[in-house]
Design brief:
The protein is of the alpha/beta class. It contains twelve helices and eight strands. 46% of the residues lie in helices and 13% in strands. Helix 3 links the parallel strand 4 and strand 5. It is globular and about 55 Å long.
């Protein structure tokens, strides 16, 4: 049996557990600090805190004891990006030396580094791609890019993901996969604003094309492999997040485009908002305003003095 632990029993962690448990060779444990969730999963085969009307496969178990990770073959990190560094530090000396740690969180570390760079274990990878949790839970074919060593990719694909309906492709450039998963949220807001104003496929795909080109150039700026834009974690994830109304980032863009919202202090977690600030400040510092016109226009709209009309004129010129 493959002993798999998913750290984080929220929406996506639960959906991933459901899919991985379809492989009879996997023993899947959801680890969470929410004791009520542990009780609900183990007693009722439900996680009503996140999926009120769904039953989960009986093969899934839950635990609030970190000892459940002691002899894990693989640990999937499906917790907020800001918690990754501290959580992993707490596991040092606990995990097996050959355990594979797979980051699925999206974002930078608290000090601005890529998350795999703050995970203190020998075998580290990441998985990113166009996946809404509810569709993963419902068993629909879903795609993810694995970033890491090719050996680990082959083991994961052939052993853990077998018979789960999860499709994978591969990149050796883990930093590229991480960066793309961050950038797509920002550009989903940019595209959503235009969708909110025009509701036009023609105009949407003007913006998609601009976004792909700027994302490719940002990969180069960070010293990453630009071809990664063609993986599931690139164009695939951008398309899912920017053109589907299940996306929080696109929804914020739609509201801004319709003139209803432009609140940078909302209590709802909108991943792209922080990215707009970080990336906007970066291109200004590097004097690259002419190269990243969409990004700069978005930054000026959200954090500067620009208005919606100025944004639209700039990005569609």
């Amino acid at each position: 049996m493959n002993k798999i632990v998913i750290a984080g029993a929220g929406v996506f962690g639960t959906a991933l557990a459901e899919r991985l448990s379809e492989n009879p060779e996997n023993h899947v444990t959801l680890y969470t600090i929410e004791s009520s969730v542990v009780e609900d999963i183990n007693s009722n085969h439900q996680n009503r805190a996140y999926f009120p009307s769904r039953h989960l496969r009986k093969e899934i178990t839950a635990s609030g004891d970190a000892a459940c990770m002691d002899d894990a073959d693989a640990v999937f990190l499906v917790i907020p990006s800001k918690a990754i560094e501290g959580f992993c530090a707490s596991l040092v000396g606990r995990l097996r030396e050959d355990a594979l740690i797979i980051n699925m969180a999206k974002g930078f570390s608290n000090d601005g580094r890529f998350l795999p760079e703050v995970i203190p274990f020998r075998r580290v990878g990441c998985m990113k791609g166009p996946t809404f949790a509810v569709e993963v839970l419902n068993g629909l074919p879903s795609a993810l890019t694995y970033g890491g060593t090719h050996e680990d990719y082959l083991w994961l694909k052939g052993t853990v993901l077998a018979d789960t309906g999860i499709i994978t492709d591969y990149t050796a450039d883990m930093r590229a996969a991480e960066l793309l998963s961050i950038l797509k949220n920002m550009y989903a807001i940019a595209i959503g604003i235009i969708s909110g104003r025009y509701n036009s496929p023609n105009v949407d795909f003007i913006m998609v094309t601009k976004a792909v080109n700027e994302m490719k150039d940002l990969l180069l700026l960070y010293g990453c492999e630009e071809q990664t834009i063609f993986n599931y974690c690139g164009i695939g994830d951008l398309g899912l997040t920017s053109l589907n109304d299940l996306s929080r980032n696109r929804t914020l863009g739609l509201l801004i485009g319709k003139g209803f919202a432009n609140d940078t202090h909302s209590g709802v977690v909108i991943e792209g908002m922080k990215t707009i600030k970080v990336m906007g400040e970066l291109i200004i510092e590097r004097h690259l305003e002419d190269k990243f016109t969409t990004l700069l226009a978005l930054y000026d709209l959200i954090y500067g003095s620009s208005d919606l009309n100025q944004y639209i004129v700039t990005v569609l010129s």
